[in-house]
Amino acid sequence: MAFSDKFRKALNVRCGMVVVAAGSSVRMGFDKLTAPILGVPVLVRTLTTLDACDCVEEIVLVTREDRLEEMAELCRANAISKVKAVVKGGKTRTESALAGLLALSSGEKYALIHDGARPLVTEEIVEAALKCAMAHRNACPAIPVTDTIKQKDGDKVVDTPPRSSLCAVQTPQGFHTDLVKSALTKAIAEGREYTDDCAAVEALGVPTYLTAGSNENIKITAPMDLALAELILKQREERQ
C-alpha cells in the first residue's frame, strides 16, 4: 500500500473517480474507446488501471445515452468492480464531468476526473494528483512543453511565450468535490465551456497546483496514437 494511501485512510478521506467517455471520436474517424491496444480496448485499459488503484474508492463512467447499456456490459465483462454507475453525459465536457460528479457517493470528499481516452495512466500519477488535491483542494498533472508555442491572431503571430512558463496538462485532475461541483455548475450557468476542469476552478479565482504527469500518459486522438500506445506498453514490459 502506498504511503499516500495510508495517509488518506488515516484521515478517513474517500476519493471517487469520474471517467469521461462521452465524446463522438470525430477526429479519430472511428470509435477510439473500443479500438484495441495490443488486443485490449482503450477504455478497458483505462478502467482496469483505475480499478486497481488503492486510493480510488469508486468509479463513475460517463458516456453517451445510446451507449449506456454497452458500457455497463463492458464493465461487467471485464470485471471492473469499482464502477458504481454508468451515467449519461451532457452536450459538453463540462456538463459530462458534472453529471459524473453528481453520481458519486455523498461521502466522497475528493474527486478525480479522468479522460477515458488516456489508457496509459499509472497509479503513481493518480496518487500524486490525490495527494496534491488533499493539500491544495485541486491538482493538475502536467509535463514541460518542448515545442516553441506561438500565439496567433488568424495567420499572424502575436506572441511567443517562453517555454519555461508553459506546460501541457493531463488527467486525472483532482479536486475537493464541493469546489469542482461549484466551479462546473457556475460555468454551465454562464454558458462557458472549458477543455479541462481546472480552468473552471481557476475562473473562481482559485489557483491550480501542478503535479508530475508523464510523456507516456498520452490521449488517444488520432490513429497514430494507437501505434504509439502499443510501443509504450512494449517498452514498459521490457523495463519490468
Q: Kindly name the structural category.
A: alpha/beta
Helix content: 25-40%
- Whole-number count of domains: 1
| Weakly predicted, low-confidence segments | none
Q: What order do the helices and strands follow?
A: HEEEHEHEHEHEEEEEHHEH
Mean pLDDT: 93
Envelope shape: globular
Alpha-carbon Rg, integer: 18 Å
* Beta-strand content bin: 15-25%
CATH topology: Spore Coat Polysaccharide Biosynthesis Protein SpsA, Chain A
In DSSP terms, counting alpha (H) and pi (I) runs of 4 or more, how many helices? 8
Largest sheet: 8 strands, mixed
Distance between the termini: 19 Å
CATH architecture: Alpha-Beta Complex
Instruction: Please report the total strand number as a whole number.
Output: 12
Task: Let me know the CATH homologous superfamily.
Answer: Spore Coat Polysaccharide Biosynthesis Protein SpsA, Chain A
Reading off the top of the CATH hierarchy, the class is best stated as: Alpha Beta
Structure, described:
By secondary structure, the chain is of the alpha/beta class. The chain has a single domain, classed as Spore Coat Polysaccharide Biosynthesis Protein SpsA, Chain A (Alpha-Beta Complex). Helix content is 37%, strand content 22%. The strands form three sheets. Strands 1, 4, 5, 6, 7, 10, 11 and 12 form an eight-stranded mixed beta sheet that branches. Helix 4 packs antiparallel against helix 6. The longest helix has 17 residues. It is globular, with a radius of gyration of 18 Å. The two termini are 19 Å apart.
